[in-house]
Specification:
Structural class: mainly beta
Shape: elongated
Largest sheet: 8 strands, antiparallel
Distance between the termini: 31 Å
Radius of gyration: 22 Å
Strand content: over 45%
Order of helices and strands: EEEEEEEEEEEEEEEEEEEEEEE
Helix content: under 10%
Strand order of the largest sheet: 1-2-5-6-10-9-8-7
Number of strands: 23
Length: about 250
């Protein structure tokens, strides 16, 4: 594992086989992926250049500067008529030695990513993060502007490394007369695709304060169909005790 003193960048060699598909073709296939935490919350994959199919990376004249990683030369990924312009980054002169000889692809610009034979979404899974979902008999009550909008004695508690406890409640324990569907959709590499509700309390519409997973990825099936609130934006009472609002990237 390496650390970079210029920024909060750490690196680690991954144990999974990683394949990247673009334009219907596997363009990279490695058993030596490098995990790089460019941001603290999740890693990116850097793939050895020697594990790319010949000819899919076309160097461009453009560069990208990172304060911690140095200057990257950009390449366009091309397969037949399909192209992802400047979607590949190579830090050949990086102050972080581990990055040399590796290529970072824009995750979203590729068609598919696989860890072993399972497709992954959004970004690589962090090997140091885990998700535990436990059935609980705690009494959970949610207030918005002093109005109780949900109350349950049958919550599922989701513990995800580095994030506050999330309380998932049966939908029937939510004030269904207050909800308004939202078009917002977000994706999580551990849980799947989340849909949202807004809640109208009095004259105020609280946008996207509740989410749920109609279907989930296998490791999170215990929260399928349950609803969860942003604790950062509502008042949560657990066994009668008001919880402090957590400070997170979602605050």
């Amino acid at each position: 594992m390496g650390n970079d003193s210029r920024g909060r960048v750490r690196t680690e060699h991954g144990a999974k086989r990683v394949r990247v598909v673009f334009g219907g073709k596997v363009i990279a296939d490695t058993i030596r992926p490098l995990l790089v935490w460019e941001v603290p919350y999740y890693p990116a994959y850097y793939i050895p250049r020697t594990d790319f199919v010949a000819g899919v990376l076309e160097p461009s004249a453009n560069t990208y500067h990172s304060p911690s990683r140095g200057d990257a030369k950009l390449s366009t990924v091309r397969v037949g008529e399909r192209e992802a312009v400047d979607a590949a980054y190579e830090y050949e002169d990086s102050p972080i030695d581990e990055l040399k000889g590796h290529v970072r692809l824009d995750f979203a610009a590729m068609d598919n990513w696989f860890e072993e034979d399972e497709e992954i979404f959004v970004h690589p899974r962090d090997p140091h993060k885990r998700v535990d979902i436990l059935a609980s008999s705690r009494h959970v009550r949610i207030e918005i502007d002093g109005v109780t909008v949900a109350e349950s004695r049958n919550p599922r508690l989701l513990f995800e490394t580095g994030l506050p406890t999330r309380y998932y409640l049966p939908k029937t324990d939510l004030r269904l007369d207050l909800i308004e569907p939202s078009d917002t959709i977000t994706r999580c590499p551990y849980k799947g695709e989340a849909e949202y509700y807004s809640l109208r309390v009095g004259d105020q519409l609280h946008n996207d304060v509740v989410w749920y997973y109609r279907t989930t990825l296998p490791e999170s099936q215990k929260v399928q169909g349950l609803v969860c609130f942003y604790d950062e934006k509502v008042d949560v009472f657990v066994d009668g005790v008001k919880q402090e609002r957590p400070k997170t990237p979602f605050s």
